[in-house]
């Protein structure tokens, strides 16, 4: 397997750590007198006491040393308390044990997408993405390289047979292979599907055969709409070639901007170098809130809280599925999501969801995102992403009544 360093884009090669930030862990040694850091004096910090109460009934209080740490600059890979909590959480959730240098706390998983693109993509590189895919990832990748190898998505996730054919084709033609495979394995945004266990294994086998890295972006893993065991993460199947992104946006509070990357130490080292040059570290305050909450709730307790939130999403998913089955024409197809917040609707060929929204949303008063917003090739015009996260079951049903009306007009326009 080629080393992580050998895969870096030109811009990321030969970078050295910030000499000052590298001293941060040393400043924490008990008894040390630090004349090194340019930190502001904690006596000047504005907070005296912070108490946060949670809907679960739990409460946390930041005072004294804890509050000073939450208000102060911190280490680029994350606060020690947060990192220890996350290592334990990761083991609890995924049954994967991370070493201390295999985890970096991020400003949400979006930061991880950008860092991966920054680190690995030269302008003539490509990334494997699905068609459709999450626009936030496409724009992060597109900031550094324009090329994608777009692989269709079906009810079982990324079509790995098609990926195998494309990789074989590129190899035969002597063309450059993609830098990594981007994959949202659960509750795909916008596809609303999960990668089946069989496909997970096939994907890993392909990446081993062609020596590709995998970027596993899994913000919907715990937004579970069905009971039963979780599928193994791609990281658990191939830890040496997967950079995994976990997010607290959908399970804690998106505004705190918290997530973490985990993966090979060599890759995480590069993530830290990026953070040193971009934002120094993720907010100490946000990390303190999350790590204190997780410590107070316990990992099972946190999972129980997350499962309670999922009840709302399940109800809404069920309402959308029932209304779609009852009200939309049979020519419209969709998969029932097992995680996440989205259903992807495929209208008959010839329909144009963007045109439909532009012409009819103002009168029919319902909106969804046209499929073309998720395409790397200006395709998917006959598709639509509907989200069930921010509406009530009643609004979902009424929304589907209105959607059926719009669709009827669009089908007549498209003459299908
Ligand atoms: C697939 C996917 N990846 C990443 C993100 C970004 O998440 P975060 O809030 O953790 O940055 C989103 C947000 O919607 C998403 O759907």
Structural summary, described in words:
By secondary structure, the chain is of the alpha/beta class. It folds into 2 domains: about 70-295, 3-Layer(aba) Sandwich (Aspartate Aminotransferase, domain 2), CATH 3.40.640.10; about 300-415, Aspartate Aminotransferase, domain 1 (Alpha-Beta Complex), CATH 3.90.1150. The chain is built from 14 helices and 14 strands. It has helices at about 5, 25, 65-70, 80-95, 110-120, 135-140, 160-170, 195-210, 235, 265-280, 285-295, 300-325, 355-365, 395-415; strands at about 50-55, 60, 105, 125-130, 145-155, 155-160, 180-185, 215, 240-245, 260, 335, 340-345, 370, 385. The chain has an 8-stranded mixed beta sheet, sandwiched between helices. A 4-stranded antiparallel beta sheet has the order 11-12-14-13. It has a two-stranded antiparallel sheet with strand order 1-2. Helix 7 runs parallel beside helix 8 (about 195-210) and helix 12 (about 300-325) crosses helix 14. It is globular and about 80 Å long. Bound molecules: pyridoxal-5'-phosphate (PLP). Pyridoxal-5'-phosphate binds near residues 108, 134 and 254.
């Amino acid at each position: 397997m080629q080393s992580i360093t050998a895969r870096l884009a030109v811009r990321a090669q030969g970078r050295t750590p910030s000499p000052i930030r590298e001293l941060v862990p040393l400043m924490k040694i008990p008894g040390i007198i630090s004349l090194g850091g340019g930190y502001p004096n904690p006596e000047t910090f504005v907070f005296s006491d912070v108490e946060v109460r949670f809907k679960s009934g739990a409460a946390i209080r930041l005072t004294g040393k804890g509050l000073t740490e939450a208000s102060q600059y911190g280490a680029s890979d994350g606060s020690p308390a947060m990192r220890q909590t996350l290592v334990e959480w990761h083991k609890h959730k995924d049954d994967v044990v991370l070493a201390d240098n295999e985890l970096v706390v991020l400003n949400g998983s979006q930061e991880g997408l950008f860092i991966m693109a920054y680190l690995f993509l030269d302008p003539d590189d490509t990334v494997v993405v699905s068609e459709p895919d999450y626009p936030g990832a496409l724009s992060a990748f597109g900031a550094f390289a324009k090329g994608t190898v777009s692989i269709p998505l079906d009810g079982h996730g990324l079509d790995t047979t098609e990926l195998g054919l494309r990789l074989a084709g590129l190899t035969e033609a002597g063309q450059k292979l993609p830098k990594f495979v981007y994959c949202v394995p659960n509750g795909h945004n916008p596809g609303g599907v999960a990668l089946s266990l069989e496909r997970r294994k096939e994907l890993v086998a392909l990446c081993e055969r062609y020596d590709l890295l995998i970027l596993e972006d899994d913000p919907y893993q715990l937004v579970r709409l069905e009971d039963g065991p979780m599928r193994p993460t791609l990281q658990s199947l191939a830890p040496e070639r997967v950079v995994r992104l976990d997010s607290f946006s959908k399970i804690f509070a998106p505004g705190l901007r918290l997530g973490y990357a985990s993966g090979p130490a060599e890759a995480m080292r590069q993530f830290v170098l990026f953070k040193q040059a971009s934002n120094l570290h993720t907010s100490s305050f946000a990390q303190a809130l999350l790590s204190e909450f997780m410590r107070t709730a316990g990992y099972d307790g946190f999972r129980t809280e997350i499962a309670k939130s999922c009840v709302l999403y399940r109800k809404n998913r069920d309402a959308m599925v029932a209304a779609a089955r009852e009200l939309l024409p049979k020519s419209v197809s969709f998969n029932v999501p097992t995680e996440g917040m989205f259903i992807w609707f495929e209208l008959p060929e010839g329909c144009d969801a963007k045109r439909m929204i532009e012409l009819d949303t103002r009168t029919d008063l319902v909106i969804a995102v046209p499929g073309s917003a998720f395409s790397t090739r200006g395709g998917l015009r006959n598709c639509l992403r509907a989200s069930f996260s921010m509406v009530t079951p009643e609004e979902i049903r009424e929304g589907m009544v209105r959607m059926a009306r719009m669709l009827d007009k669009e089908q007549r326009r498209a003459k299908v």
